[in-house]
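Most newcomers find our protein records easier to grasp once they have seen one. Read left to right, the backbone structure tokens trace the chain's path through space. Nothing more is needed to start thinking about how sequence determines fold. An example says more than a description, so a record of this kind follows:
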Amino acid sequence: MVTLNGDFIQEKQRRIKVLTQEMKKRDVDVVLIYGHSWRKDFIRYVTGFNPTGRHAFAVITADAYITLLVGVPEDVER
């Protein structure tokens, strides 16, 4: 189990806020972020989640609702 400190949580919230503000400004309803086994940092940057499987998606809505789609059951349990 990963423990997150307050600074990390605040930074993640700031990143989501900036992203969703830009989405609303540009009239974008949903953003889909993809990460694969070699480049997971896109998902990790926005969500703070580091997937272990080969593929993962983050679906982020303009109202800051985040859905993670992961490729292995172990990621679901984390």
Summary: Strands lie at 30-36, 55-61, 66-70. The radius of gyration is 13 Å. The mean pLDDT is 87. DSSP finds three helices and three strands in the chain.
